[in-house]
Amino acid sequence: MTTPPAPGKEPPMVSNAAFVDDTNFFAPSNPNLERITDVSSEFFRIRRIEINGKKTELLAINPTHNGTITYGGSQIKPQDKSKASRILEV
């Protein structure tokens, strides 16, 4: 329940924009990661949240699968081992 604005005052404006920053998914295998991204994509679709797949990075440690995953409407390839990446700007 919200309190109405005081007489002569405008109600506060509420933005409908939201930002999801630095979401990290961890999985022990490619099939597990695909399941996580499928579920999260469905959640984001239901909530009308758009994911920018072009800003998504896939980091693989000791990969057994070198294929891509689909996320945010983009095909994401694992990063080259020689490329540095930052998590939470650290």
From TrEMBL:
<feature type="compositionally biased region" description="Basic and acidic residues">
    <location>
        <begin position="78"/>
        <end position="90"/>
    </location>
</feature>
<protein>
    <recommendedName>
        <fullName>Reverse transcriptase domain-containing protein</fullName>
    </recommendedName>
</protein>
<feature type="region of interest" description="Disordered">
    <location>
        <begin position="70"/>
        <end position="90"/>
    </location>
</feature>
